[in-house]
Structure formats: C-alpha cells, structure tokens
Design goal:
Elements: H1 2-29, H2 31-35, H3 39-56, H4 61-64, H5 67-75, H6 80-85, H7 90-107, H8 110-122, H9 126-141, H10 146-174, H11 176-179, H12 185-191, H13 220-240, H14 249-261, H15 270-296, H16 301-306, H17 312-327, H18 333-352, H19 373-383, H20 407-417, H21 419-434, H22 436-443, H23 452-466, H24 472-489, H25 494-504, H26 516-522, H27 529-552, H28 555-559
Length: 580
C-alpha cells in the first residue's frame, strides 16, 4: 500500500512538471540560436528540443514529431512545402503493406496458431518452454511489431504460468518424499523426477506445508521460473525484429536513410539484410537462452535438453497448451490465405534483387530501381481488400473481405505509424542543409586515429547506453546523420559504421521504460526493475559482441565492407592510414 501511495504521488508530481518542461526547455535553449547566429545552431536548437521532449515524453511522440513542420519554416531552415514533402516516403508504403499483413494475421488468429505450434514442438519442461516461447516470439516479431508480438504472446505465457503455479501446489502435496534432499525445484522438474519416494517412518499427515515464499509463489524456484519466462518474451521480440527491414522502425529508418543519401547503394535490400541478420538473431537467441536459463533455472542444461519423463507441472503445462491450441479449431480458410500471402510476400522480397543472381526486377530493364520492396508490400497488401473472407452463399449478401479499414482506422494507422518516422527524414535533410552533421563529424574526426573496429565499438556502446533512456527511433535519428559523415571523413565504408549502430539501437533491455515490450511484461508483476537491469546487462553484452562478430566475419564479404564504395562521396581529409 505504501508503495502504491508513493507511486500515485510520483505520477501526480510528474504530471505537474510536464507543463513546466514544455515551457522552460525552449526558453532555456534559446541562447543557442541567438548567440550563435548560424544555421547549424538553429538546427541544433530544434534537435535538442525534440530530443528532450522525446526522452521525457512530456508530449506524445507523434506530436513532438510535428515540431519541424512548425519550426523549420520559422527559422528559415526549410520551406513548409519542403518539410511536407519528406513526411511521406517509399518506406511508408512498405510499412502500409506490412501493416495490412500484420492486421490480417492478428484478425484471423494465425499468430496464436504459429506461437502455440512452435512452443509445443520444443517441449514443456521449464527450460525448453522458455526456448520455445523465445523462438515463437522472435519469428512473429520478424513480421509484426515487437509490441504487438508481446501483447499477443504474453497472455498465453501468463496462462501457462498460472497453471504451473497451481500444479506446483498440488504436486508438493503428493511428492513430499521426492522433494527431500533437493534444493532446486526447477532442476528437479527438468530431471523428470515424478514418483514419490516413501519411507517406512514417513507420516504425511503430520508434515506441515511450507509457508508461501512470496505471496502467490510457493517457492523461490517458482518465482525464478516466472521471471525467466517473462524476460524471455520481452527480449526475444526485440531480437527477432532485427532480422527483417520491416521488423523494427529503426531498421526502416536506416534503410530509408541509405536510399535517401546514398541513392547508388544497392546492397541494402530485404534479401541481403535477412542473410546478414538471421545468423545474428539465431546466435543471440541461443546465447540469451543459455544466459537466462543459468540465471533463473540453474545450470543443469542436460536436464532441459535430454529430459524424457514429465513431472506433474509439465503435464499441467502440456495440457494447458494443448487445450489452447485445440480451442482454435481446425485451420480456417482465412488463415490459409493469409499464410499463402505471407509466404509469397517473403519470397518476392528475397527474389527482387538477391545480388548473387538476377532477380525478378530484371524483367523490367528499362526501369531499373523503379520497383522496390514497397511495390511488393502494396501489391499483396491490396489483395487483402479484394479476396472474399467467406465463401459466397445465397443467404449472406455481404461476404466481406479480409480487411476493412474505415476513415478513422486509416487515420489511426497514419498517426500511429507515420508521423514519428517521417519526421526523422526532415531532420536528416535539415542536418545536411544546415551543415550540422558535417560540423559534428569534424569534431569527432580524431576518432579516426583509432582502428575502425574500435571506433565502431565505441559508437555501439554509446547508442546502446542512450537507447535505454531514449526512444530507439530518436536515438537512430540523432546518430545516423553524425556517424555517416564521420565514416566518410576517416575513409571507412559508411555501412561499416551505420549497420552496427542501427542494430545496437534495438538493444534496449535494461529498464521497463526502455521499450514497450519491456513495459508490457513488467506490468504482469513477476519482475522488479533490478531483475531487468541484471538480465539486461548480460543481453546488451551478448548483443554488441554478436553484432561485432557479424561485422568482422560474414558481413564483410556480403556487403563489401572492407572497401570504400564508389557510391559514397570522397572527402578531402586524411584517412585512417594517414594518406589523403
């Protein structure tokens, strides 16, 4: 009660501070453009103001994203027509098609069928249950937003957790003899100990049940298992989103930045990105599972991987998952069509311009570069509004289509998905016009005396730290226009600097407020902030090291990162080797 009262007082205090931050911040920063009367200072003023609003969230993120439309014309940085023109780009069309696919998957329940099938395929002991949920979440988040994935899967996890807790209480009454001498219940479950060991002197009726460990948890091991299952959902959804360009908004922002300022760069496409990031996702999932298993379930991995007998808890868990899957019924016509379109969209993305062979875009040699991934997304997204959702019959006049989007639904899509990312391109363009990014890059040029890998490592550590307290998209927005000129200034392939930075921005694992998936799992009450900090530090280390491994091994020949590309401008400065 005291904690709840303190939280209410804290929220009230913060609500009263929001108007002060909104008013005081622009006034406090005003000397910057007034004293330094340059376009760089004016652009920096707007950028810092937006960064403060984003980090504190005193205004909704999409509202803050509209500030350039107001301030850029007033400061004479860009015309209003120029600002408006960059609020809708090619990647928005790609995102619109992906949203249609994601909406159909959610509407017809295909996500639940995929998740439950993957989880039951791995096993139901605590260790394999954790791995199954991680793989299922990672796969779904490749195509759906991380937040939607966690919001859809976490109720399934919570139902399993509650059944496991109930089974724990029942099993403890029936297996007191089996529990004697065993200090880790989670490891006992994984070892498959299910038969009670009775002795001649045992008197079950005189044995008192142990008091609850912590409210709703009977034992410490039960609580640790709940923590591990909750964290694996949040972390795996962020990891899976790395794999595809449409998996996270930061990937889309990175891709659009490359298309906008390096238009001759053709190596960043859906296929190459998938080949680069799928091994990163797999390695991170395996290492994260090992780390979380060690933290919350113990170090007996053999019991998780080789256990064949099921305990009472595992039988209850299997029953819950089986009942949830059976409740879905047989696969429907709508799910089949959605799956076909989903697979077709992925195939067309891969084969548009795979790089190692001509893709289907080569069928239009007179219009190179005209068809993009957005073309595929829109084409197949459009079919959801054409294909009938039900077979026509005489009694049903309106058979409907797979998707129906009214005016308000369409406006909600625009406000929720388009305002925030689109403003980043305004900032990109503004920084280029004002020279702010070039000026900051010149200040950072001394980093060129370090080995390129060391410079990239420093950049990854910086963005990984900042993204814990700031929006992932905002962090990407701030750093891409700075690191690209820096790479040009020190003679390094810009992709060598930008790709790891764009990936590490998604490693916001430390705090409940770092990203929406963390916040969702935190609200279920199994975790504390310190639990997330301890586990998140390990995940951050795993993520940064895996990205650096990819950069120095398969990523270099795949994207030719060891050479300075022809599509990047040549800057007249000394490169890393000291030659002009």
């Amino acid at each position: 009660l005291r904690f709840g009262h303190r939280m209410r007082r804290l929220r009230c205090s913060w609500s009263s501070l929001k108007p002060l931050i909104i008013i005081i911040t622009p006034l406090a920063l005003l000397p910057l453009p007034l004293v330094i009367r340059k376009k760089e200072a004016e652009c920096a003023y707007i950028l810092i103001l937006m960064a403060v609003y984003w980090m504190t969230e005193v205004l909704p993120l999409s509202v803050t994203a509209l500030l350039p439309a107001l301030l850029f014309p007033l400061f004479g940085i860009m015309k209003s027509s120029q600002v408006a023109s960059v609020y809708f780009k090619d990647f928005h069309l790609l995102l619109l098609g992906v949203i249609c696919l994601a909406t159909s998957i959610e509407k017809w329940g295909l996500h639940q069928r995929i998740a439950l099938r993957l989880v039951t395929g791995f096993g139901v002991n605590p260790g394999m249950l954790m791995l199954g949920f991680m793989v299922g979440c990672a796969f779904l988040s490749m195509w759906l937003s991380n937040t939607s994935t966690v919001a859809m899967v976490m109720p399934i996890v919570e139902a399993v957790i509650q059944q496991v807790l109930n089974a724990s209480e029942e099993a403890s009454k029936d297996h007191k003899g089996a529990l004697n001498g065993i200090s880790n219940l989670a490891l006992q479950l994984e070892a498959g100990i299910t038969e009670p060991v009775q002795t001649a002197t045992e008197e079950p009726e005189t044995v008192k049940a142990p008091p609850p460990y912590n409210g709703k948890y009977r034992t410490h091991e039960d609580h640790m298992m709940c923590k591990g299952l909750s964290l694996c959902i949040a972390y795996s959804s962020s990891i899976g989103g790395l794999t595809t360009l449409s998996g996270t908004s930061t990937n889309l922002i990175f891709a659009e930045y490359i298309y906008q300022y390096y238009p001759d760069c053709t190596v960043i496409n859906f296929g190459n990105w998938f080949v680069l990031c799928l091994p990163i996702c797999i390695i991170m999932l395996i290492l994260s599972w090992i780390f979380l298993h060690w933290m919350y379930l113990g170090s007996n991995f053999r019991a998780s991987l080789c256990s064949r007998q099921r305990s009472e808890k595992e039988k209850h868990t299997a029953r819950v998952l089986r009942d949830q899957y059976n409740s879905l019924g047989p696969i429907s016509w709508q799910e089949i069509i959605t799956m076909i379109i989903f697979i077709l969209m992925a195939i067309l993305w891969f084969t548009r311009n795979p790089g190692f062979m001509p893709g289907w875009s080569a069928l239009f040699p007179d219009y190179p570069g005209y068809a993009t991934d957005a073309t595929v997304a829109l084409l197949l997204g459009f079919t959801f509004f054409i294909i009938p959702a039900h077979k026509p019959n005489a009694e049903q006049r309106d058979i409907g289509t797979f998707l129906k989007v009214g005016l308000f639904g369409f406006m909600n899509i625009l406000s929720g998905h388009f305002h925030l990312p689109s403003v980043f391109f305004s900032i990109f363009f503004t920084q280029q016009i004002s020279g702010l990014s070039t000026w900051v890059a010149e200040l950072l040029t001394p980093l060129g005396s370090l080995p390129p890998l060391a410079t990239v490592t420093i950049a990854c550590l910086i963005v990984t730290s900042i993204t814990e307290v700031a929006s992932n998209a905002a962090t990407t927005t701030i750093f891409l226009p700075i690191l690209a000129p820096l790479a040009e200034a020190i003679g390094v392939n810009p992709l060598y600097m930008l790709i790891p930075t764009a990936l590490c921005v998604s490693f916001s694992f430390l705090l409940p407020v770092s990203n929406p998936p963390n916040a969702i799992v935190f609200t279920y009450g199994h975790l504390t902030s310190m639990d997330m900090v301890k586990a998140g530090l390990g995940l951050n280390v795993i993520g940064v090291l895996t990205v650096l491994l990819a950069l120095t091994t398969w990523g270099t020949p795949l994207l030719n990162l060891d050479t300075y590309p022809d599509w990047a401008p040549v800057v007249n400065v000394f490169n890393l080797h000291g030659t002009p």
